[in-house]
Each structure stands twice: as structure tokens, then as C-alpha cells.
Design a protein that fits this description.
Structural class: mainly beta
Strand content: over 45%
Shape: elongated
Mean pLDDT: 92
Number of strands: 9
Length: about 100
């Protein structure tokens, strides 16, 4: 089947203490094909993620997250010309919990 890797997996480590949470993870994908005739190969790849949250007060937290932390270029489509997946992405924000 196209775009379905034979093997894939993920692992995540999380640490939490008092008002701080830190998490790091890896996702890995093996070789896959971009078409149903198995002509266009997509090599396997892995990416690292990172997430942190710090509580600032009752119900309010600051967050930061990073995807593809090492900014590794990986091919997500290849029908004659390779398309590269998302570069390092980051986001920061505030979280308000109404509970």
C-alpha cells in the first residue's frame, strides 16, 4: 500500500515535579513507497519532539513545544521530485484551565 511504512514507532519520556512538566519524544518511520506500483521510494526517518509546561498561578500555565527539533529534512512525497516535510516548528503560549 502506498505511503504506509512497514514499521513505525514512538517513544516518550516525561518528567513532572510540582508545577513543571517536561517531555521529550522520538517518532521513527521505515521505508515506504509513494505510489501503488512501488516505483517511488520514501526513505525512513525519525524526528524529535520536546514539550514543556510551567504553572504560573491557579489555572494558568506557560507552554513551549518543538517538533522536528534537530531540523532534519525528510521526504514525505516523491513522484519524480521529492517534497520535504515540515522544518523545525515551535510554538509558545499560555494555557488557561477552567477546572
Amino acid at each position: 500500500m502506498p505511503e504506509i511504512p512497514r514499521s513505525q514507532g514512538s517513544a516518550q519520556l516525561t518528567w513532572s515535579r510540582a508545577s513543571t512538566l517536561v517531555s521529550a519524544g522520538v517518532r521513527a518511520y521505515s521505508l515506504q513507497f509513494d505510489d501503488d506500483l512501488n516505483q517511488f521510494r520514501l526513505p525512513g526517518y525519525s524526528t524529535l519532539q520536546f514539550y514543556a509546561r510551567q504553572r504560573l498561578g491557579k489555572g494558568v500555565s506557560a507552554t513551549a513545544a518543538f517538533d522536528n527539533l534537530l531540523d532534519y529534512p525528510y521526504v514525505v512525497a516523491n513522484s519524480g521530485y521529492p517534497n520535504i516535510g515540515e522544518p523545525r516548528m515551535w510554538r509558545v503560549g499560555m494555557r488557561w484551565d477552567l477546572r
